[in-house]
Structure formats: structure tokens, C-alpha cells
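In response to reviewer comment 3 from the previous cycle, which asked for concrete evidence that the modeling workflow produces usable outputs, we include below a single protein chain processed end to end. The sequence was submitted unchanged, and the resulting C-alpha cells are shown without manual editing.
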Amino acid sequence: MNIIGLDLGSTTTKSVVLNDKRKILGYQIVPTGADMRKAEKTVFYASLEKANLNEGDITTVIASGYGRERSSYAKNQITEIKAMAIGAEYLFPGVRTLIDVGGQDSKAIKIKEGRVENFKLNDKCAAGTGRFLELISQVMQIPLDEMSSVAKKSIRYPSLSKTCAVFAQTEVITLLSKGSSASEIIQGSYEFIAKRVLSMAASLKVEKPIVLSGGVMKSKSLIKMFQKISKEKVHVPKEPQLLGCIGSAIYGLAQHK
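The workflow returned the following C-alpha cells.
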């Protein structure tokens, strides 16, 4: 038995293939772009190819994420929150808190034995999301995937005081004009995100073990900032964008036992 789990996000589209032993056989991640169906088709067949399987080898397909109800392949859907909790438990058994910073939203999820106990969601403001870092990247004219290495060059950083991502952009421009370096400002941006997200999570009474996920968690400098501010050890998947599609696939396996 082989299951495909899909995570159809607003920013990225992901897929993973699991066999009946819950082993990951292949996965793919692409930007969602303007055509979600095209992105879904791309990840679906790319993950099949990586798993060395054909479409007929797949028992079922489960989708989660923003576009789950518009999936062309899914036989069933589950919510993104539930899928991510299942995925986090799969990768880090016993996880109690998952903090996910996505492209358009951020989430804090309390988990017990792979089940959602409670959660908080920020999907109304770009502050504390990947979109905020994209805005800073544009102002700084530094590609997102290079920001972490630039940040390493400085341990000093100015704290951003604005609570709105748009106003924070203006603040960054002011800091640049006053002589702050790129590395200092990026570190300050990381502090801004970590404080915003951890403040949102605080109402859930964060418990260890803590897992961080989302594309921005590919930044080692940002992970270190989360650890510094939370004063806790955090765990990060090798591929931090796959929790939703892994959880979807495991859900599909459970339905077909």
C-alpha cells in the first residue's frame, strides 16, 4: 500500500509518498504560484517519479492545506492543523508544541499523542509570517535564501518597534539610512518574527518538546533566535515544509488499515 499526502498551501505546494511501513519514498515542493492545479500536478507526478512508482500503485491520496477542497487528485481531505500535528508526532514522537511560520500565516499548536489539544492562528497580519521576511528581503535587496548567512556576520541588532509589517519596512529603511548594517537589520527582523510568534503561542502555555516548521525555518540564524528568545531547545525537521503532507499521508494509511 502506498499513499500520497498533499499540502496545497497558498505559497508552496508539497507532496510526499509513504508506503505501508510509513517510510517516505519520495517528495516534492514547488511554489504554488497563480495556478494551484498546475503546482499540484507537478508535485504529484514528481513525487511518484522519485518513489519509482506509477499512479496505479497509489492506494489513495489525502490533501490538506489552503487548497485541499479544490484538489484534482485527493480522495479525502483533512485540515492543515490536524495534518501538521500528525506529521510532527511522526517526526518527533512526544512533541507537545508545534510552531509553524508559513508564507501567509503562523500557527501554534498544542499536541498530545499526535492529537490537537488547542491552537492559535495568525492569518490576518503579515507580521510574524514568511511574507514579512519577503518584504524585508525586497527592501534590503538580499535574496531570502542568503539572509541567514548574512545575519551570521553580526550578533548586535536593532529591535524593530513597529507591529505592522508595512511600517516595519519603513523602519528598516530608516535604520539603513542611519548606518545599521544589513546583518544587524536581518537579525533584528528575525527577532521581530520570533517575538511575534512566541507571543501568540504564549497563550497556549508552550510545553516541551517544541518543534519549529515552515519554509523560513531553513534559516539557522532564525532558529537560533527562536531558541534565544524562548530560552528553550527547539527541534526542526530536516525538511521543515513537509509536516502537512506527511500528516495527510499517515492519516490516509490509518483509514486503509
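The chain has a mean pLDDT of 92. We consider this sufficient to address the reviewer's concern, and the full set will be provided in the supplementary archive.
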